[in-house]
Amino acid sequence: MQGIRDKVAIVSGGALSIGAEIVRAFVEQGARAVIADVNREAGESLAGELGDKVLYVPMDLAVDAEIEAGVKSALDTFGRIDFVVNAAAIYQDQGPDSGRADWTRSFEVNVIGPVMLARAARSALAASKGAIVNIGSISARVAQTGRWTYPASKAALAQATRSLALDLAGDGIRVNSVSPGWTWSSGMEQLGLKRPIVDKVAGAFHLMGRAADRREIAEAVLFLCSDHARFITGADLAVDGGYTAMGPEGRPSALAAVAAAMQEAEHDH
User: What percent of the chain has pLDDT over 90?
Assistant: First the structure.
């Protein structure tokens, strides 16, 4: 992709799963990457695997001092920041049983943290005419049983993305988001789930008939950072296999169902 080579990206939540795949994709395209994550063991392991083009910095998005220190480390090491990708998120969601602490922690990490990271990196991004990509979710658009704090935080992040895009445009900084559908993740693997089963269930909700691969999300992020997306800002790119396009009627024909019901009613009479 044009405009990625020799650039520098900070990826919050870059130690595992989608975030780690985003880091790998940047490095493969010739960029340098900063893994900003609370998971030191996984972050240092990935940085060691990918070599001197990658730096690990400890970063809890709920702690401003760690955000500022991480940005400083990136600048001290690589001399510039071109992209910020907010992939870090917390799923502290007990649905209707979620207490104040659940709500507070969810918004601290999933909304306020990404904005504070963008704020801390703003001057560096302005210097490079860079880009910010926030990882949203299809959960921001629909109600899901037993899920309250996570969808609400992702909906708030979608609005924050638009606000950032508006007010940072004067600095030459583009701000967009990517909203994945169901994505095969390391968390699913750790739970012992099997990919064929997940794809089978996901097929009922995604027009593409399966869950996404992590690389498909990463490539969308790189596109939004690249020169190919130079006139895109304030947008949300749904990388969801048609989840949000499907609608509540799903795949079956509603008209056919009505016709069948009519025939059944006539037969009963």
Answer: 87
